[in-house]
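Dear support,

Our group has been running a series of protein-ligand predictions, and this particular one with adenosine-5'-triphosphate is the one our PI (initials K.S.) wants archived with full inputs and outputs. We had some confusion internally about which version of the output was final, so please treat the block below as the authoritative record. The input we submitted was:
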Amino acid sequence: MSSILNKKPEREDEVLDSALRPKKWSDYVGQDKIKENIRIIITAAKQRSQSPDHLLFYGNSGLGKTTLAYLVAQEMGKEIRITAGPAIERAGDLAAILTNLSEGDVLFLDEIHRVGATVEEYLYPAMEDYKLNLILGKGPMARTMELKLPKFTLIGATTRPALLSSPLRNRFGAIFQLNFYTPEDMEKIIKRSSDLLKIKIEPEALKIISNRSRFTPRVANRLLKRVRDFAQVQGNGLVTKEIAEHALNFLEVDKMGLESGDRKILLALIEKFNGGPVGLQSLAAASMEEEGTILDIYEPYLMQCGFIERTPKGRIASRLAYEHLGLLHMRKQLI
Ligand SMILES: Nc1ncnc2c1ncn2[C@@H]1O[C@H](COP(=O)(O)OP(=O)(O)OP(=O)(O)O)[C@@H](O)[C@H]1O
Ligand SMILES: [Mg+2]
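Confirmed final output from the archive:
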């Protein structure tokens, strides 16, 4: 069975993402402080007839970074160009993108932590002075050429801010962390998505999906879509509380929104390492997951739930985790 969590986004996800992506500020639920801040930055820049500062968005996958970038461009009335760290292999790739921008455009650079060190060096003057210093030729014949760039706003997005070098981080005028959403905001998001997808859903069912969607809009949308299938095939199309519960149990998404991958990690931590502390590498090996997937996908939510704690010696499973899995009897006695 395919996982509900987003490891490698599939085509289907992209279609769902863009179908449900808020296109107006008023549809972008929650993150009020960030929205307010961004609007001030944009309004002030407009009043000075300048392009706004470069912005960095960081936070877990599916919390709304890309969506926010589109809204910024829209608010500025400019085009948005999209690229991602792994797509820019050489300085030439960056030059091609930057020289094709028009004055005031937004360049959205997703997975910015994956931009290589050499390319990063070229980004600095581009961000600071809107110039690109290209080196033509090799060895003693090499010459540098300075290209003037249009004034643009770079929006970087990353799930791993710690991997950004500080010179790069320092070149952003404002840095925003997207947080997990509140249950109320999640319900609003699910309601909006059901309206857009013409899904009839009972308020109780909204609550159930909201509670199990890891406080993450993309997960909520994906769960909603799966639950709709159950309502259609096993019911009369209406998403009731019973159908939502049945469908999510069938998909092995538990009451806290944990799925089999999360449980595998917690179980490895408890059963193989006696609850920890254990290092990431060992935990990854024991649970047969990639370290990056644990860091990006599983751990932030497990920590948010209070199931895993990070200590200087490694990860430990909390009492809550034992309780949730019904394994309290296995908990070693703390002296
Ligand atoms: N604040 C929000 N209000 C309503 N819907 C939202 C919000 N944030 C995200 N969504 C929904 O979740 C989907 C995923 O959001 P988005 O693609 O912006 O996440 P992301 O942070 O860029 O994720 P990734 O790190 O995987 O690229 C969007 O298509 C949209 O439908
Ligand atoms: Mg994104």
